């Protein structure tokens, strides 16, 4: 360490990292430990907490929460920087900040919460010619491109958008696009709009259990063309090629091919899971790595004691609150709290048609249409935001290590 001050360092300020930092600050406040004895510091690549789950929407104006609005009242130190190394032996993280490379910071407890990134396989043209909604910047770039389309010379695929990957992100984006394109292009050119959702699985929404037929119905009702059983072979500036020879003229390909844990996880001497996540125990401690916790998309916990956590803000936020709490307890020799969540829901936006809400790991249909949409709006616009009133007591109340009840919805009548 640099001084006698003990330090908890959090890498990342997304859903897991922000709540890790606030969870740690809350526990220190409860224990009346002053900031000159234990410091909580967050290193994040941007000055914002990005409400990443909303990147399929437009506009995105309200999706970047200035970190200082939340961290300052909680007494958490914010460092703008990109972490590039973790020295487990000497307990230091290395990072670069703006034009200042080669910085480092010592830690007594470390919480890795650097999230995940879109998987980008080596498909010809994918990196050069496709768009994504994985990050705020990616989503803004896509929107800027769509806004330019009406000014382009006519071409066969000018108003065709091909979304590749029909996981939750791909479905939510495809369901939004017909109405979004109409608002950009105008109803007069409405007939020229095509939105195609392609996936290699036999059915679009295959993994969505009881919601699968609802998803198909909603997409088709909004004019989305479904293209299952295809695999992306190549992307060019003006088209897309699938295996089996299918070629589609398009000016816009959006890749939604799934997420993989941040590459920083490779710095740990553990066996990662297939998503690159490091295994953590019920207290969020990385297996066999002393003094290090992990939360969110970087970490794999058995969330109900049996099933692995899902890369989601649904799991990332509570993982963060518990990781922060437990890092303080571990540092001060207090009992830690195990995290266990005995419910799982999926609430999928289906554009102007509505949404669908499922319960349980097998995804039983609980609500759909306008009722589920209301729940989705409450989640996206309220539930997952930190308090933004600058009040320390509200921020600490939200950071307590408790498991929330599932989101409320008006249920289907059986
Ligand atoms: C379009 C879209 C829709 C989604 N919809 C849902 C949904 O409906 N429900 C749901 O539960 N989940 C959803 N997800 C998934 C969800 O967004 C992620 O699971 C969640 O963001 C994970 O939280 P996290 O804190 O682990 O990572 P992130 O939110 O990705 O945050 C990681 C943070 O770490 C920072 N960072 C990364 N690398 C470094 C570094 N080297 N140094 C410093 N800082 C770094 C980043 O800047 C970021 O602030 C969706 C994702 C997308 C893209």
Give me the secondary-structure topology:
Layout: E1 6-11, H1 15-30, E2 38-44, E3 48-50, E4 64-66, H2 67-74, E5 77-80, E6 82-87, E7 92-97, E8 100-106, E9 109-112, E10 116-118, H3 126-129, E11 130-131, H4 136-148, E12 160-164, H5 168-185, E13 194-198, H6 212-221, E14 224-227, E15 232-236, E16 239-242, E17 247-249, E18 252-255, E19 259-261, E20 278-279, E21 292-294, E22 299-300, H7 313-332, E23 345-349, E24 355-359, E25 364-368, H8 369-383, H9 392-398
Parallel strand pairs: 1-2, 1-9, 2-5, 9-21, 11-18, 12-13, 12-18, 13-14, 20-22
Antiparallel strand pairs: 3-4, 6-7, 7-8, 10-19, 15-16, 16-17, 23-24, 24-25
Helix pairs in contact: 1-7
The structure holds flavin-adenine dinucleotide.
List keywords for this structure.
alpha/beta, FAD/NAD(P)-binding domain, five-stranded parallel β-sheet, 9 helices, 25 strands, 26% strand, globular, binds flavin-adenine dinucleotide
Mean pLDDT: 96
CATH names the topology of the largest domain as FAD/NAD(P)-binding domain
Helix content: 25-40%
Total separate domains: 2
Family: Belongs to the NADH dehydrogenase family.
GO molecular function, one term: NAD(P)H dehydrogenase (quinone) activity
GO biological process, one term: aerobic electron transport chain
Keywords: FAD, Flavoprotein, Oxidoreductase
Question: Can you give a write-up of this model?
Answer:
With 414 residues, the chain is of the alpha/beta class. It has two domains: 197 residues, FAD/NAD(P)-binding domain; 136 residues, FAD/NAD(P)-binding domain, CATH 3.50.50. It is 27% helix and 26% strand. A five-stranded parallel β-sheet has the order 5-2-1-9-21, covered by helices on one side. A hairpin with a 4-residue loop joins strand 16 and strand 17. It is globular, with a radius of gyration of 22 Å. The structure holds flavin-adenine dinucleotide.
């Amino acid at each position: 360490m640099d001084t006698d001050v003990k330090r908890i360092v959090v890498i990342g300020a997304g859903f897991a990292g922000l709540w890790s930092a606030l969870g740690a600050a809350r526990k220190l406040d409860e224990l009346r430990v002053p900031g000159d004895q234990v410091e909580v510091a967050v290193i994040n690549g941007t000055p914002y907490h990005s409400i990443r789950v909303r990147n399929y929407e437009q506009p995105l104006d309200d999706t970047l929460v200035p970190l200082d609005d939340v961290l300052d009242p909680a007494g958490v130190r914010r460092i703008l920087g990109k972490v590039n190394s973790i020295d487990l032996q000497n307990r230091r993280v290395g990072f670069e900040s703006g034009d200042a490379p080669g910085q480092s910071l010592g830690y007594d407890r470390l919480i890795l919460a650097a999230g995940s990134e879109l998987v980008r396989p080596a498909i010809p043209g994918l990196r050069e010619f496709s768009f994504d909604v994985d990050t705020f910047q990616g989503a803004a770039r896509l929107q800027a491109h769509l806004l330019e389309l009406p000014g382009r010379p006519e071409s066969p695929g000018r108003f065709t958008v091909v979304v590749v990957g029909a996981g939750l992100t791909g479905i939510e984006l495809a369901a939004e696009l017909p109405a979004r394109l109409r608002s950009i292009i105008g109803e007069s050119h409405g007939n020229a709009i095509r939105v195609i959702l392609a996936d290699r699985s036999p059915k679009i929404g295959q993994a969505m259990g009881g919601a699968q037929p609802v998803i198909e119905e909603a997409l088709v009702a909004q004019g989305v063309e479904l293209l299952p059983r295809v695999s992306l072979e190549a992307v060019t500036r003006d088209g897309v090629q699938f295996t089996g020879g299918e070629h589609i003229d398009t000016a816009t390909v959006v890749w939604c091919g799934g997420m993989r844990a941040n590459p920083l996880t490779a710095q740990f001497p553990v066996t990662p899971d297939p998503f690159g996540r490091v295994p953590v125990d019920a207290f969020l401690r990385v297996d066999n790595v002393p003094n290090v916790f992990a939360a969110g998309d970087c970490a794999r916990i058995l969330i109900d004691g049996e099933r692995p956590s899902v890369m989601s803000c649904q799991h990332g936020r509570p993982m963060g609150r518990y990781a922060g709490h437990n890092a303080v307890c571990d540092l001060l020799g207090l009992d830690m709290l195990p995290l266990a969540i005995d419910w799982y829901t999926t609430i999928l936006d289906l554009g102007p048609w509505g949404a669908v809400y499922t319960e349980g790991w097998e995804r039983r249909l609980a609500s759909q249409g306008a009722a589920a949409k209301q729940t989705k709006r409450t989640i996206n616009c309220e539930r997952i935001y930190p308090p933004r009133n600058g009040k320390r007591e509200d921020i600490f109340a939200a950071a307590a290590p408790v498991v929330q009840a599932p989101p409320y919805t008006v249920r289907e009548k059986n």
